[in-house]
Amino acid sequence: MLKIGPYEFDFPVVQAALSGYSDGPMRRIARRMGCPYTIHEVVLDKLIIQPGKYQKKSLYLHEDDHPVGGQLMGSDPEQFGAAARVMSDAGFDVIDINFGCPVKKVLGRCRGGFLLSDPPTAREIIRRVRDAVPPEKPVTLKMRRGLDDSAESERNFFEIFDYAVECGLAGVCVHGRTVEQRYVGPSRWAFLTRLRKHAPDVTLLGSGDLFTAGDIVRMLNETGVNGVTVARGCIGNPWIFREARALLDGRPLPPPPSVVEQGALIREHYQLSFEEHGEKFGARLMRKFGIKYSELHPAGATVRTAFALTKNRQALEAVLDEWYNPSREWPEVVRPTDPGDLVAAGATLCDC
């Protein structure tokens, strides 16, 4: 069981906030594959408090997209608190604070992972958000294990972490890399084990290097965290949630999805995207999703190129008709074992 405030989940796996990816359609597809709790892509505090297109788009939630977390990023405590109140009033079930994003332009504006180097401001943001949100609504925090590997960075981490616990936050998710690392080098799961011993009663979630269902089970078993958040590992592979459920239930790992099964789910994802975003923007979004989905196809490189060349809905449907045709006999799908492409994607993808 994973407990976040009043919410209890029978499956301790969460879809992370993924900038440019974890929109409503992606979250709803994840739920269909067994993920009980998902987090909206991160939004900027100063923009979410301003009425307009950005606010309207960012606050939209479908009725079957609950419980859902709203992740906020910013640098001004007062604005952060005001934005948390707006998101809470809009119907987000959990408010998540981002102190983990390692993207350079974010750090340059004193947001995200930068705040791990500024405990006074970080503490004030935590307090403001907790005060702004109704006491019964959970507030959670996303962190990395520090700005860098220095002793000062570690002291700052624990000062902020302990303050979050003191303020009654419902959970803390920690990525095993530093902000300086970005996505280079292994995520240090041993730090999560150490943190579990430091705060045995806190709802602690782990993140980093979760590319397969086996990775999910291994992190849970090795570190003792209450749950995990899956980020890059679920883009184009929502079946990871179904597979992890099977392993955690003591069942065998299901076979990878057939080409026909992949095509059916991609079509469903496309339809949800067109309904929510319209055909023009939906087609642009689904081009990059198609590129990620192609990694499971037996002709992955060719299908990837086909998706990359699409410019509209008709072109996307033509790719599906050709490469996911249910009347054709397709080779057996082989589950990828090398996450190299996913790691490389981290250069431009913020999963914090």
Describe the structure.
With 352 residues, the chain is of the alpha/beta class. The protein has 2 domains: 2-248, TIM Barrel (Alpha-Beta Barrel), CATH 3.20.20; 259-323. Helix content is 45%, strand content 13%. α1 (24-32) runs antiparallel to α11 (259-277). The chain is globular and about 60 Å long. The two termini are 24 Å apart. Residues 338-350 have low confidence and may be disordered.
Q: What's the structural domain tally?
A: 2
Total helix count? 15
Distance between the termini: 24 Å
What's the assembly state of these chains?
single chain
Specify the biggest β-sheet: 8 strands, parallel, barrel
* CATH 4th-level superfamily of the largest domain: Aldolase class I
Rounded to an integer in angstroms, the radius of gyration calculated over CA atoms is 20 Å
Mean pLDDT across all amino acids: 93
Structural class: alpha/beta
Tell me, briefly, the overall form: globular
The CATH architecture of the largest domain can be named as Alpha-Beta Barrel
DSSP summary, beta strand count: 11
Share of helix, binned: 40-55%
Report the sheet-strand fraction: 5-15%
Main-sheet strand order equals 3-4-6-7-8-9-10-11
Low-confidence stretches: 338-350
CATH class of the largest domain: Alpha Beta
CATH fold assignment of the largest domain: TIM Barrel
